[in-house]
Structure formats: C-alpha cells, structure tokens
What does this fold into?
Amino acid sequence: MNIHKKFFSKIGFSYFILGLSALIFQIILVNIIYHANITPLYDYNIFTILTAVCNYILPLPIFLYMMKKLEREKIDRQSIGIATLIKYIAITFTLMWAGNIIGLIITSLLGGVMQGGIENPVETLINSSDIMINLLLISIIGPIFEELIFRKVLVDRTIKYGARVSIILSAIIFGFFHGNLNQFFYAFLMGGFFAYVYIKTGKIIYSIILHITVNLMGSVVSIFVAQSAETLAAGSIDPISVIIIGVYAIIFVVSMFIGLYSLANYKKSKFNGAKTKINLKHPLKTMLLNYGMILFILFCICEIIIQIMG
It folds into this structure.
C-alpha cells in the first residue's frame, strides 16, 4: 500500500471508529436504562437527546485525536454576498428534494420486492419528537457538529489532493454515515455541495447555515406543511393552512428554478487558496480501495441492511 492509500485508509478507519464508538455508546446507554429501569428516560424526547450525545459528544474526542495525527492544510477565506447565499440555499433545497425522490423510488422498489414497506427512521424521529427537540437537535446542533466533522476536519486534511477529491470523499462518507437508504442519496448530494461551498469560501459558517436551513425545512417546516395538507385534504378550508401550503409551494418552485438553472449553468470553479498539491493517478481507487475505507463502507452497509430488514 502506497503512502497515499495509507493516508486515506487512516481517514476511513477514523470514521469507522467514530461510527462504531457511537453505536457502542448507544448500546451501553440502552442497557443502563433497561437494567436500571429509569422510567423518565423512556420518554422519546429525552432518549433522543441522549442518543444525540452518544452520536456527537462522546465519540468526538476519540475521532479528533485520530484525525489530529493527519496533517491539515489552510484554505484561504472568501466572503460571499447575500445573492450568492440565496443561490446556494436554492441549490441545497433542489439537491435535497432530488435526493429524496431518488430515495423514495428505490426504497419503494425494495419494499415491493420484499413485500413490505421500509421504515424511514428520520420520519419516525421527526414525528415522535417534540418540535423543540427537532428545532434544537436536528436543525441547529446536529448541522454544526456534522459540518465540523464531515467538512471542516475532513476537507482540511484532503484538500492537498484537490477540490474534486475532497468533495467526492465528503459526499461518500457523509452519505454512508447516515446508515440508512432513505437518507443516503440526499446526504450524498448535499454533502458534496457543502464541501464545495466550504472549499470555495474557506468559511465553515456558510455550509453550517445551508445545513441548518435545509434541516429546518425538513424537520420543522415539514411538520406544519404536512398538518396543513391533512387539514385541506379533510375538506376543511383553513386560511392558515392555505397560506402555509401556498408559501411552501412558492419556496419550492422558486428554489427549484434557481437551483436547476444554477446547476445547469455550472462552470468549473476556481478555488482560491485550494490548489492541488498532489495529483493522484487513480483518485477513486486510491481513496476507496484501502483497508480503512473498505471497513468503514462495510460497517455502514451493514447498518443500512439492518435498517432495511428491521
């Protein structure tokens, strides 16, 4: 194994340990709650908070310690205007909706083959948790941690191989790390775009804003939209429901128009301060065909299979 494969193997192994340690912490937590019979912790909202702690807080020191051993590069910073930020938000929404459609089609086909529906864990989480939990954990805290873990830490260490390598790797790791088929496709698309934005600007705050915005739309706004749609479907003409559906429809149409137009007119970007220092002869082979990355992907595939079968 050459030096570059070893580098990406260490990255893959670090994310494998991140996922494995999060799973171990969750198993320990569940067993403590079960054996101690701590009744308040059976509340879904509290359990969701504890799960977030197991996913983000507890494994983080181990992960950062492992990644700290890999040299990082500094990306020059560049501010963007409000018009560009709005365009980026529209692209993010477009990628989210496109990824959702792909995910729904594939899970529906698999569900038909298996003669049973495939549960969407995200939908279950959103519908089962209090809206304030969705707002704080899914819409704010989660995006901040995920942008630091899957963009800042990762891109800073892989940008020496070029923007394309960093973007593709961030997309693959982010997509697989979600551990379920429903989220894989839009997480893959948005993960790559968030990496693009971070490399383009050198400021992680922009990808955090995009991530918060799209999660807010999916975990909070979607609840009100679904409730309004049910009210109208029941034959009740509620003005508030009409307004909510109307505003959402306008956001959808405008975002899709701007997003599709921007993507269709995409030109190869120049990334200031992020020049390729090491050119890989076979980038995909070097990135993915190594022990650490294979172990990480197999771990995530196992989680996806368990989620589908469960």
